[in-house]
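In response to reviewer comment 3 from the previous cycle, which asked for concrete evidence that the modeling workflow produces usable outputs, we include below a single protein chain processed end to end. The sequence was submitted unchanged, and the resulting structure tokens are shown without manual editing.
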Amino acid sequence: MTETPRRLVFATNNAHKLDEVRAILAHRVELLSLADIGCHADIPETADTLEGNALLKASYIYEAYGLDCFADDTGLEVEALDGAPGVYSARYAGGEGHDSAANRRKLLRELEGVANRRARFRTVISLLTDGHEHRFEGVVRGEIITEERGTAGFGYDSIFRPEGFDETFAELGEEVKNRVSHRARAVEKLRQYIESCER
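The workflow returned the following structure tokens.
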């Protein structure tokens, strides 16, 4: 008899993130989105750290729906900008909503003439099960290039070139990115934790 995979809510409505994480967790869990559980609330992300925002989102779902869940927060941390945009990566350019193109334009402007273009993407996952938090982090280092390249991906992918590659995340394509990205590394740690709980 085949075991029913455990159900976990991923506290996101971002289809790109959902696809990435589903691909990594594969058959380990039945992954539910916020839409799947009927949650259409705009969950606040008011913390000043990635860790804080991930926990805020996971706690909201856990307390409101009583379901095991996890949430992530990701930031692009640029060395020459003292770690900015960091926790404000999605709304770096200001204004309403998440305007990725405006965010990229602002970052490229900020780095005009700057020699040090080292940066890293960092993802923090907060998993809440049985009232306890488990945290997982994934980091990928690289650099911000001077102009956009590639059409795949989202966010800052077209201006971020990860270490060890000549291409940006937006040029590498989903299959490669899902193996080497910051989120992939954090989700892999989550997968290993889930597997260890099943033993």
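DSSP finds six helices and seven strands in the chain. We consider this sufficient to address the reviewer's concern, and the full set will be provided in the supplementary archive.
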